[in-house]
Amino acid sequence: LPPALTWSLLAPRRVPTVPVKNLTGSSPVNPALAGITGILMSAAGLPVCLTRPPKLVLHPPPVSKSEIQTIPGISHTCRKTTKKQAKKGKTPEEVLKKYLQKVRHPLDEDCTICMERLSAPSGYKGPQPAVKPDLVGKLVKCGHVFHLHCLVAMYNNGNKDGSLQCPTCKTIYGVKTGTQPPGKMEYHIIPHALPGHSDCKTIRIIYNIPPGVQGPEHPNPGKSFTARGFPRHCYLPDSEKGRKVLKLLLVAWDRRLIFAIGTSSTTGESDTVIWNEIHHKTEFGSNLTGHGYPDINYLDNVLAELAAQGITEESLAQEKD
């Protein structure tokens, strides 16, 4: 052999150890690919370090009934879904009137609902509301302008609960409610700490919604719906901010905003109970799926999501009233 080639074969290899993980198949990395990589590296004379992947911890250690505590400042430990109806006797026009100012000379710009010019009649082609198609209104808080005809049609196509949400900036007028099906929400303290919150115990929330039949407010009235994965266990730190989040989640539950009936983004199943834009932590002792701890931004993020649904500290005072 040439001297240079002989030296390269005999010289010590200074290649760093490369770990090959996920051989158990518990992560998105294909375990077969990881195994093949290890074989090829070994055949090439490269050192292979086999390591175990982190373990998914969905639930806390067993908790006895005597260890479960009520949450100071929050009455009861269970709440069932309530269904708040819109005030009777008010037409959509009467409901929206308190949120609007009439615009006599609209600017030459588009109505973002029908995409026709505000200076022209509404282009909405569905069932015709009892209001002239050329009237224009401005929402009093955010200032966005629409055909009154379009706003009434949008209200009629929604939950008709006495509230309105601006389609441009999502500002909420009135009290927004959802279409969450009947169920039960339990909440209490367990004597274990979450990762990243070793200085306090844990608030455990248990949601339970059974399958049933869709009502008139749901996508397919009269058709049955499924409810997969219930009871669902969720976790918050038993800190001042964690208790604040729980209080606001109770308002969201009462307003039927935590769940909805729709199509699952994970399974593709239709007519099933799904989460409704308020994220929860369902992983107790790890964060492999992104739904666990530690997560230093979670409490602030969920407070922002609740606010987007119209649920803030002011809502707590409204509920007491």
Automatic annotation (TrEMBL):
- Keyword line: Cytoplasm, Metal-binding, Notch signaling pathway, Repeat, Transferase, Zinc, Zinc-finger
Q: In its keyword annotation, does this UniProt entry include Zinc? A: yes
Record organism: Nipponia nippon (Crested ibis)
Tell me where in this chain the RING-type domain is found.
111-170
Which Pfam family is one of this chain's hits? zf-RING_UBOX
Its principal location?
cytoplasm
Protein's UniProt name: E3 ubiquitin-protein ligase
Where, per UniProt, does this protein localize?
Answer: Cytoplasm
Similarity annotation: Belongs to the Deltex family.
Q: List the CDD domains.
A: Deltex_C
Example GO biological process: protein ubiquitination
Superkingdom assignment:
Eukaryota
